[in-house]
Amino acid sequence: MSAKRIPQQLVLETATALMARAAIDIPPDYKQALQQAASQETENLSCFVIKTMLENYDVAEKDRRPMCADTGLPRFYVKAGNEAMVEGGFVALEHAVREAVVRGTQEIPLRPNRVHPLTRKDNNNNLGIHAPEIEYTFEPGGDWIDLITVHKGGLFGTDYRMLFPGDGIDGIKRFFLDTMASFGRRGLACQPAIIGVGLGGNKDTCMRIGKEAACLRVVGDVNPDPEVARLEQELKELGNSIGMGPMGFKGNTLVVDCHVEVAYTHTGGMPMSIHSFCHSSRRAAARIYSDGRVEFRDDPQWFTDFYRREGI
Amino acid sequence: MSQMRVVKLQVPVSQEDVDKLEQGDVVYLTGTLYTAREGVYKKVLESGDELPVDIRAISNVNFHCSPAASPNTEGGYDVGAVTATASFRFGKWMKDWFDTSGAKIIIGKGGMPEEAYREVFMPYGARYLSTVGYGAGALLGRGIKRVKDVHWLEENGIAQAMWIFEVEEIGPFIVDNDREGNSLFVNHERAVNAKLEKLYEGLKPPALKRYGETTSRADEVIGEPDNTPIQIVNVMPYQGSDKK
């Protein structure tokens, strides 16, 4: 029996709802981590900033207004079960997602951030060439579609470097330290934040998995590879030993959590990317089933065993 | 956590009130404030366009921001959240803007280099207030009571238009520069820099250098570098940069 087709309208409604949830409701894992940070922070100003941020999340939820006025650059992650079908096909799904960006921008409202890089032309709806970014992946077995929305800022807190095998773990730590120390100053990277690190792949893969590590894994989640998990822990501790808190003020709360994702890479290289998610960690996820059920959830569950598979 | 000093000010702010502000004070503002960033500065200060409104008569607080705003059914605009944009990009326009607008308070993200405070802000008795945590847009949005007016919306777009807001206890903001032009951010950076050397111990720089790469992470990220002496071990000599 073939699966029912997921209505295009349902994709549109779900995507629009996700846009609002992501912009307004801080994910519970992140909020809890910040509450803990607030109780552990010993520096006056840093503590004041974190508490103000927590208050801001409450106001955002209460007033149903975005937690940050730079509502970021909307992006979508789509995971489709292998048996899933959308009414009108995947072109229709993409159409619905793009329409949701226009609706969300107007109704929530979000700030139109997307302009043409040269002419600075602004459609005032966050749409444009390659905007929003939509990434796809597939999972065996299911007849559902996962929609994940991320509103991420785009100016600071991302860097890439081609390291080499000889640079080793020390080189990784060095680049991490360099990046955190410079981007944390004056709070330009909007920390405290979840830091995502991409290791390996080629340059574009490295950037992609690093961003996914920052935006699609929840606080406390650990990479299943023990070597990678140990690096995650070491980098988190290193970041928090810089002595910097939010806004570059003295403190010990720069890194809320560090997630590392790896991809097989060129034998001679060790590319590395670093992505600081905003301290307004804006993500929301939902699964749309073929029978019309929509399940909102906090964990995007993007990194599955299948997604990280090594063999055929 | 010890208490921080909270100051509530009426806008337009008097010079006397501005002078009383101390570094690290938490400030809330009531009255009228406006947005002006590169779009406005370019039009007024470079293209010589007339300001669409007598800004001196209305407000002396310039917010480096662009709101998430949408038209409402009454023909006005609703503003959900507001937060600041990074101010260092506007440093080159500030002197002329103080002359033209009479601004006494600049609100934004990240502050300005100390040189800018000393050379440009101090002669005008002006202060820089930083938004808190930068992402606290809902809190600040609550402080905006209504959009009084918006200018150059068609031409500049929502982000770069000149928005005039009526605000009530909008905040919190943190005072960055003191009367001598010292920056709170820079004070804290110096403290952080003091620890950096130890962290870099044993971490060799990567095999491949990037063009013009600085080897000192103690440098300020905006404007001129901080001159705090810091020696980093195991680092190749710094060669080739346009930085002085």
From TrEMBL, chain A:
Protein's name according to its UniProt entry: Fumarate hydratase
Domain of life: Bacteria
Record-annotated Fe-S hydro-lyase tartrate dehydratase alpha-type catalytic domain positions: 14-286
Organism: Oceanimonas doudoroffii
Alphabetized GO MF terms: 4 iron, 4 sulfur cluster binding; lyase activity; metal ion binding
Family classification: Belongs to the class-I fumarase family.
Residues in the signal sequence: none
A Pfam family the protein falls into: Fumerase
Keywords of this entry: 4Fe-4S, Iron, Iron-sulfur, Lyase, Metal-binding
NCBIfam families: ttdA_fumA_fumB
TrEMBL record, chain B:
Gene3D superfamilies: Fe-S hydro-lyase, tartrate dehydratase beta-type, catalytic domain (3.20.130.10)
UniProt-recorded name of the protein: Fumarate hydratase
PANTHER family xref list: L(+)-TARTRATE DEHYDRATASE SUBUNIT BETA, L(+)-TARTRATE DEHYDRATASE SUBUNIT BETA-RELATED
Occurrences of domain Fe-S hydro-lyase tartrate dehydratase beta-type catalytic (ranges): 3-186
Taxonomic superkingdom: Bacteria
Keyword Lyase: yes
UniProt xrefs under Pfam families: Fumerase_C
InterPro entries named in the record: Fe-S_hydro-lyase_TtdB-typ_cat (IPR004647), Fe-S_hydroAse_TtdB_cat_sf (IPR036660)
